[in-house]
């Protein structure tokens, strides 16, 4: 097998050599490729020069790659992608177009991280250091692997991607020493793309772009549907709106969209799906509360809870208030929106202001009674914290941030929350248990055990909704179980 030359990389004060691994032939078995975890990445996402501001032009692909690479490095160090992007935007204040490009590349890189890291493992002898360099290579590879895949493809040709990745590397003092290595790795990928991709695809992590434990968990819970579930989680989500039926009707709102030149389809009693996602600022009536962004499966909660005017309702894990708003659009309620995170409660307030609706906002822990005034509720919505494994198409970083042990920990917390809330429900009252999880320990097993412990009557509800992509049905993976107290409980 032909040996590749070592690439010499300049790095002050002493030069470092980064080895490129020799190529493997198309039919050869994949070598054991280890995916570096955050702790294995030497600088764990921290920039050596955290206040460095790049002078790259905002309209360049190099600038977008640089921003996305920072985001990937931060996710590898444990920060959620939206928070990582928010920090990067605050620091570099990109133009709206550059912001869109950074976001698109970072999300794409998250959906292809398993494959990009496998390819890197095949082409380099150790994890590229620092994490920013690793992030840059992953972002560039995600643009070079099947450019037409998933989010419609990004409009960059191969050599532009390589050239701009090298420019991005050269522009940052932490990684400028490695620009030759970036060039060598990406050019090698282009030369040997078919063979490298074929070999990488033999590894499930690269083929599916999920951690191995996640693939195993989906397979074990859904032996017939596991592939469709994993594929759905890698698709770009649609933009689904909830029409505020207090203010307008679905046909009227569709007409408003048509007048604005926006194509959309009605998909339920209050849901409308746009043919092409748009920034919320461009959605007619969004700022005035005519419509809100909410997945079609999440829109089932308000109807299932069966609220009517005058009821006393608890939305127990309420932030950012998507379902709170829907409940208040459905009926005139005395609604308490509870969340343990005061900062997230602010987001409910903002949402309700936009919708011109109001609720009692309370900071408190749903697993205890310290915040409760002792008056029972007619209805309780328990949209408990969970692994969010059912909404990975919207949050592709989640699969890389979660650990297997999180499921048990979160299931234990939601058990405490459910048992506590049950005491706050009046006789004949209804409690709707919701998760956006795919794991039975958090959803069906939890619901069944809860019903047994509390002698709760289970009413009809959808149960586990698997994430689905398609013209007819297109929604996240949510779980719904509805319980009623008997009159004597
Ligand atoms: C799945 S999200 C809720 C989404 C929300 N219902 C909506 O539709 O927009 C779960 C929420 O539970 C909150 N949470 C987590 N643990 C909690 C606890 N012990 N008590 C109250 N809220 C909690 C989190 O801060 C988070 O906002």
From TrEMBL:
Keywords, alphabetical: Methyltransferase, RNA-binding, S-adenosyl-L-methionine, Transferase
Bias (Low complexity) ranges: 22-39
Catalytic residues (UniProt): 436
Residue ranges of the region described as Disordered: 1-52
EC number: 2.1.1.176
Biased composition (Polar residues): 40-52
Binding positions for S-adenosyl-L-methionine per the UniProt entry: 317-323, 339, 365, 383
Biased composition (Basic residues): 11-20
Family per record: Belongs to the class I-like SAM-binding methyltransferase superfamily. RsmB/NOP family.
Protein name: 16S rRNA (Cytosine(967)-C(5))-methyltransferase RsmB
Organism: Undibacterium arcticum
């Amino acid at each position: 097998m032909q040996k590749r030359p070592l690439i010499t990389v300049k790095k002050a004060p002493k030069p470092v050599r980064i080895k490129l691994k020799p190529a493997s032939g198309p039919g050869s078995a994949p070598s054991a490729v280890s995916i570096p975890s955050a702790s294995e990445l030497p600088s764990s996402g921290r920039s050596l020069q955290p206040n460095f501001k790049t002078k790259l032009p905002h309209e360049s692909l190099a600038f977008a790659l640089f921003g996305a690479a920072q985001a990937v490095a931060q996710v590898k160090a444990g920060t959620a992608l939206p928070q990582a992007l928010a920090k990067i935007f605050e620091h570099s204040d990109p133009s709206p177009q550059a912001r869109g490009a950074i976001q698109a590349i970072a999300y794409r890189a998250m959906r292809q991280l398993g494959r990009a890291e496998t390819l890197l493992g095949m082409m380099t002898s150790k994890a590229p250091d620092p994490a920013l360099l690793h992030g840059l290579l992953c972002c560039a590879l995600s643009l070079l692997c099947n450019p037409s895949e998933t989010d419609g493809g990004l409009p960059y040709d191969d050599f532009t991607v390589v050239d701009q990745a090298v420019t991005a590397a050269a522009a940052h003092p932490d990684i400028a020493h490695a620009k030759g290595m970036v060039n060598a790795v990406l050019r090698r990928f282009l030369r040997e793309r078919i063979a490298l991709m074929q070999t990488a695809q033999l590894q499930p992590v690269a083929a599916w772009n999920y951690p191995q434990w996640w693939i195993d968990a989906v397979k074990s819970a859904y032996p017939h549907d596991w592939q469709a579930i994993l594929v759905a989680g890698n698709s770009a989500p649609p933009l689904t709106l909830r029409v505020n039926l207090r203010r307008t009707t679905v046909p009227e709102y569709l007409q408003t969209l048509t007048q604005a030149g926006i194509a959309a389809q009605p998909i339920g009693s209050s849901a409308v799906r746009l043919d092409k996602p748009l920034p919320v600022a461009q959605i007619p009536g969004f700022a005035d509360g005519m419509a809100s962004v909410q997945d079609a499966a999440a829109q089932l909660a308000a109807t299932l809870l069966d609220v009517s005017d005058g009821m006393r309702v608890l939305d127990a894990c309420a932030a950012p208030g998507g379902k709170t708003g829907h409940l208040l659009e459905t009926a005139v309620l005395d609604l308490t929106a509870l969340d343990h995170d005061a900062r997230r409660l602010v987001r409910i307030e903002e949402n309700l202001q936009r919708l011109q609706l109001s609720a009692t906002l309370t900071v408190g822990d749903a697993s205890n009674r310290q915040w409760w005034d002792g008056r029972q509720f007619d209805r309780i919505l328990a949209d408990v914290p969970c692994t969010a494994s059912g909404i990975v198409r919207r949050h592709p970083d989640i699969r890389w941030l979660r650990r297997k042990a999180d499921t048990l920990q979160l299931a234990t917390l939601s058990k405490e929350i459910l048992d506590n809330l049950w005491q706050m429900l009046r006789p004949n009252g209804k409690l709707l248990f919701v998760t956006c999880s795919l794991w039975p320990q958090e959803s069906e097993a939890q619901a069944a055990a809860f019903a047994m412990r509390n002698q709760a009557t289970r009413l009809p509800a959808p149960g586990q909704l698997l994430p689905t992509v398609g013209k007819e049905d297109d929604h996240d993976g949510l779980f719904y179980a509805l319980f009623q107290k008997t009159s004597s409980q």
